[in-house]
Amino acid sequence: MVKEGVLLGFSGGMDSSTAAERLLSEGYRVIALTIDTFGDESMLRYAREAAERIGIEWRSYDAQKEFRREVVDYFTSEYLAGRTPAPCTRCNTHIKWRILAQLSDELNIDHIATGHYFNIERRGDYLYVAKGADLAKDQSYYLWGLSQATLRRALTPMGSVVKEQIRERFDNRSESMGICFLKGQPYGDFLRSEGSSIVSGEVRNRQGEIVGKHDGIALYTIGQRRGNGISEGMRVVDIEADSNTLIVGSNSELYKSTLYIDHCTIVNTEELLNADDITVKIRGIGRNPEAYVRVSPHLTGYKVFVDGGAWAPAKGQPLVFYRNNLVIGGGIVVDFE
């Protein structure tokens, strides 16, 4: 017996192909949707042929203008303003899952899904993004912006999958890594190709003394220890975009005990403000604080207290709240101290 339909975000790679096969095995009618963000005909052909091999209906959606506005322009403007953007988080919230929900409505399809490694769990009246079984591939950090309406109709075919167990079946397919629109080039080269004005400026220490010259603030991030103007043993500890200045200091100065976030999506505000077992992730991979945090309202967002400090937070980065394996919300870092 065929269950309801599922509109599946589909690239034809190992993750989305496995997701399609798993949904089919569970009895769903699967419609593959390839979201075209680049006008890449070879990518569309690859996805269509993969859908044909699996035996599912295939559609495409031209999202080039939306992707440019919501992701590429955002990425460029954030770096030029001295911030560190997370384009994959923005793409998931504003492009992939939004388009899947929109088109499933238009096509009268019950469910939506992707090849992301995550789960969805219910606690009382709320649905939560939850970590996938494969913690090495878990993508819950990038999905904190999904709304309750989206989660109510979403399926998670890859939530219980361990990637190493499927990889051998796809030995001829390369795995996409990094930021897709950079296509492997350094992001500084991409910014220049976009016509961005990258201007050199002063590097100063905390005492205000000029200690070097940088190549352009867009080419540096908080915590960076290499690059023109950064002397041995120093790291970038702040970026002052208004004056086009980098501030350098010691590694110990990178630990910040108070973070301010805005542009938030929170599952249950009462839980966020009162739970005593909340941890945070500020980067998908790399060093994250292990201590529990305390949260209080601040202006239009929240103030987050981190015992022992968080290492090298940067303005523009997402901060994602967890309780054990559940994502209880997130926001964008706008300041720290």
Roughly how many Å apart are the termini?
58 Å
CATH topology of the largest domain: Rossmann fold
Percent of residues in β-strands: 25-35%
Range of helix content: 25-40%
Sheet/helix structural class = alpha/beta
Description:
The chain has helices spanning 14-25, 41-54, 64-80, 87-107, 148-153, 164-167, 187-193, 269-274, and strands at 5-9, 29-36, 57-62, 111-113, 118-123, 126-131, 154-155, 201-204, 210-214, 235-240, 245-249, 255-266, 279-281, 293-298, 301-311, 318-323, 326-336. It folds into 3 domains: 5-182, 3-Layer(aba) Sandwich (Rossmann fold), CATH 3.40.50.620; 199-249, Adenine nucleotide alpha hydrolases-like domains (SH3 type barrels, Roll); 253-336, Elongation Factor Tu (Ef-tu), domain 3. It is built from 8 helices and 17 strands. The model has no long low-confidence stretch (mean pLDDT 94). Helices cover 26% and strands 31% of the residues. It is globular, with a radius of gyration of 21 Å. It starts with a strand and ends with a strand. It has 337 residues and is α/β, with parallel strands linked by helices. The strands form 3 sheets. Strands 5, 6, 12, 13, 14, 15, 16 and 17 form an 8-stranded antiparallel β-sheet that branches. A 5-stranded parallel β-sheet has the order 3-2-1-4-7, sandwiched between helices. Strands 9-8-11-10 form a 4-stranded mixed β-sheet, with no helix packed on it.
